[in-house]
Amino acid sequence: MDRMIYTALSGAKQTLDQQAAVSNNLANASTPAFRAQINLFRAVPVVGPEAQTRAFALASTPGADFKAGPLSYTGRPLDVALQGNGWLAVQAPDGSEAYTRAGALQVAADGQLQTATGLPVMGDGGPISVPPGSSVTIGTDGAITARGPGEAAAGLAQVGKLKLVNPTPESIARGDDGLFHLRAGAQPLQADTTLRVAPGALEGSNVNPVEAMVDMIANARRFEMQMKMIQGADTNDQRANALLSTN
């Protein structure tokens, strides 16, 4: 019976981990450009000197659903939605380069272009700054122009360009800070000049709330089934002990 208990207990633990991931997805159903977390599991036999009669559930490398979320048009000049597989390069708190598709940008008091969470936005030569008090326009290719008070609209100079990258899904992974980072051993990403953005728009979360609710119900039922298996194994053990004690 211990094999049955071991297998059910292992599966119950992974079901709880899966439920936590689904709950996090559901909580971020309205977070701009959020990528749903995906957890995969597989059965693995226990390797040891004894016979391989036990197996446990093992979590595969967690990933993310990279399909695009719906676009909503805001008309705000500093809002950009990444088209295709493009990602926006930002500077993480530790100084490294990270990537996001959340394009709700803002200009700080010192003129630095930042994300909604205050992270500097990277350009081809580093963090982008614009003249304070200027009106900023972002083109479809990521080019940034700034128009100061009283300046004519014609002949405006480009003050920077968003660094847009096109990584493969296998080369980046979500970090604890919510940003995506290069995996160990991956080559540094260079700007992709073919990528385009949609100015005045934001990408929504790609989480489907209905599917997430269904997954939560399925996980709850799966966990209940595994608990019943453990209880059944315990009951069988007690009955077997009772029969042996009567002999």
From TrEMBL:
Coiled coil residues, start to end: none
Biological source species: Cupriavidus basilensis
Family matches, as PROSITE patterns: FLAGELLA_BB_ROD (PS00588)
Boundaries of every Flagellar basal-body/hook protein C-terminal domain copy: 199-243
Record domain Flagellar hook protein FlgE/F/G-like D1: where: 81-146
Subunit structure: The basal body constitutes a major portion of the flagellar organelle and consists of five rings (E,L,P,S, and M) mounted on a central rod. The rod consists of about 26 subunits of FlgG in the distal portion, and FlgB, FlgC and FlgF are thought to build up the proximal portion of the rod with about 6 subunits each.
Family the entry assigns: Belongs to the flagella basal body rod proteins family.
Pfam families in alphabetical order: Flg_bb_rod, Flg_bbr_C, LlgE_F_G_D1
InterPro entries reported in the protein's UniProt record: Flag_bb_rod_N, Flagellar_basal_body_rod_CS, Flagellar_FlgE/F/G, Flg_bb/hook_C_dom, FlgE/F/G-like, FlgF, LlgE_F_G-like_D1
Residue ranges of the TM segments: none
Name this protein carries in UniProt: Flagellar basal-body rod protein FlgF
Main location: other
All residue ranges annotated as the Flagellar basal body rod protein N-terminal domain in the record: 5-34
Cell compartments where the protein resides: Bacterial flagellum basal body
Keywords: Bacterial flagellum, Cell projection, Cilium, Flagellum
